[in-house]
Amino acid sequence: MSLGCPKALVDSERILTQLRAEGYATSATYHDADLVIVNTCGFIDAAVAESLDAIGEALAENGKVIVTGCLGAKTEGGENLVRKVHGKVLAVTGPHATDEVLQHVHTHLPKRHDQFVDLMPPLPPAGIKLTPRHYAYLKIAEGCNHRCSFCIIPSLRGDLVSRPIGAVVREAENLVRQGVREILVISQDTSAYGVDLRYKLDFVGGRAVKTKMTELVRELAQLGVWVRLHSVYPYPHVDEIVPLMAAGKVLPYLDVPFQHADPRILKLMKRPASGERNVERVAAWRAICPEITIRSTFIAGFPGETEAEFETLLQFLREARLDRVGCFAYSPVSGAAANELPGALPDEVREQRRARVMQVQQEISRQRLQRKIGTAQRVLIDRVGPTVAIGRSAADAPEIDGVVHIKTRRRLAVGDFIEVKITAAREHDLVGVPVD
Ligand code: SF4
Hints:
Residues 120-125 have low confidence and may be disordered. The longest helix has 24 residues, at 347-370. 32% of the residues lie in helices and 21% in strands. The relative contact order is 0.08. It is of the alpha/beta class. Bound molecules: iron/sulfur cluster. Residues 144, 146-148, 151, 153-154, 188-189, 272 line the site of iron/sulfur cluster. The site of iron/sulfur cluster has 10 residues, from helix 6.
């Protein structure tokens, strides 16, 4: 099974958990498998090519292949793209389709009857995790109600469907019982959680609680583990969770994908919450919670972006002084509305603008990291070696941010929390020693 983004990873975990609950086993090799399930990504062209290659490889090596994931929902010339390229696959589903995938597995690889297993009442599946034991992604919703012009996720994953808050909190509690120390809340738009359900009441430990982001954060804050929020759009109610960060209930970390700062470009992008005064918002968040880490992503060279509009983006970065920034040169995604916009910029201009964003941000990020030298940071250990352990502070999400290199001969274990005194800062990472 191939993996893409954290949301696809959660889909893979659900499929594997259900398969295991039904008595199927997984294999590390194509050769030993009776069939192969390939979970795909279809967002950008590179991911499409990689997914199609993975399907081709599975067909060549094994022959019995079921395809699921975003690429499975893509069409080309009215025809399913996967079937068009790989006509021999057994079945194709879209993303978030555990039941459908299981039905196809039942058809092509019926369960063997086991008199002992089949007579047992169904057990709640323990849950297979594809992340290390000490952290886990918690998917709170599927799909998205927005229609950003550069994005095709709503056409692949559908409109927003939130999970009721009771189920989400129960899953989080189970993860904590299994030893998870950090929960990463993910969805396409975490701030919109519950909108589709009109914030319907559900039960958490016998109490009626609204299915809403602020309520969810309050519930997760009681679990005694790190809680990190991803894909939070700057709607007004986001302000309500910053005091919880200041109080140490959830990590002081916000992943807010601003994408641009110029009002006309944001309008062309059809971005949610684009009318908010974001420099002032960032300043207000920092006034409440000075330790907050703000990460964002931007697109440079959007169709029609003038030099002045691009400068507005650079000026925003200079004023907002975000901690961590990723920037992509605009790249048309097949099927996206933005492809029809006039004023496409040459590739080299898009790339130059991306590089200029990173150049401006590099110095800001460096200065923000330097401020941490001499401070003590709580660090969650990810890897241990004989003289150096690698961990992450509250400011570092796995896979996308920096790490903390801890010089120590102390016996540490993955999943430990330790206090680290920061002694140096590199471009993205920190270096430190344990506080005695
Ligand atoms: S908010 Fe916009 S970019 Fe994000 S998934 Fe929805 S449509 Fe795509």
